TrEMBL record:
Residues 3-144 form the CheW-like domain. GO terms for cellular component: cytosol. One of its GO terms (biological process) is signal transduction. InterPro entries: CheW (IPR039315), CheW-like_dom_sf (IPR036061), CheW-lke_dom (IPR002545). Pfam families: CheW. This is Purine-binding chemotaxis protein CheW. It comes from the Bacteria.
Amino acid sequence: MSAISYIVFMLNKEEYGIEISYAQEIIRIPKQISQIPNMPSYVEGVINLRGKVITVINLSKRFGFEQTNVSLDSRLLIVELEDIMLALIVDDVSEIINFDDSSIEQLNSVISQIGNNSLKGIGKVEKRLIVLLDASKLKNEVFQQKIRMEH
């Protein structure tokens, strides 16, 4: 049983995590995000990061939170999901935590069926519960939504 490291970030006053192997860097939100027409509301646009065009995803909007304000403390968590780079807008990035299998609770079937498919499970650290994202499912959801909107 080996531990997997997750980078933990805040989103709408809750803690979330994504496997650190996907994380490339954390940057401040640039002043210029170029909007792209006919995108889902949670796609804020694209940025140019050292010559690479990267899609910016507002996770608060993607997860249906009512409060989706971006503040001066907000950050872009740059992740590479297979061959795709995404910039995830998060409220703050806090720490790196190692989870082994015994500290990850799988989502029950009700939550899985009606909830968000991009969730992997709930990480338990002492009294804290951290929602763990499944990076490959998140990528698939983003691009499936884009394809549905195009047709």
